[in-house]
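Page 42, continued from yesterday. The earlier attempt failed because a stray header line got pasted into the input along with the sequence. Redoing it now with the clean sequence only.
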Amino acid sequence: MLRAHVNRFDVAPDGRLFQNQGGNYVDAAAYGITWARARAREYALTRTERTSRLAKRPYDLRHAGISFWLYSGVDPAECARRAGQSIEVLFRHYAKFLDGLREQANRLIEQSMNEWQRVSQGDVPEG
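This time it went through. Structure tokens are written below.
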């Protein structure tokens, strides 16, 4: 979808994906208005997508994306970089979510410890 947009509209001279008809910045309010119109049209989203709270505002899509990255195990510093925010801001807004990943972190640490113990005991396959 993104490639199709770039192929059709190109990017702004400064690399922005979206620009207004004059080639300038899109006003922040315009995103909300356009998103509301897209949600109201059957051809833009499915019925389930239109009624979902997940994508009620454009910001919700961003939040869902960052949450998904974190859930997938992407390093929080990389998530912050991709989101264009500091690690402090990421932790402030997603700390509750990150707490839910404690078990996943424990499993990763345990796997690494088991691997380290195996290697330190010389149990390395020859190859």
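Notes: DSSP finds seven helices and no strands in the chain.
Reminder to self: strip header lines before submitting.
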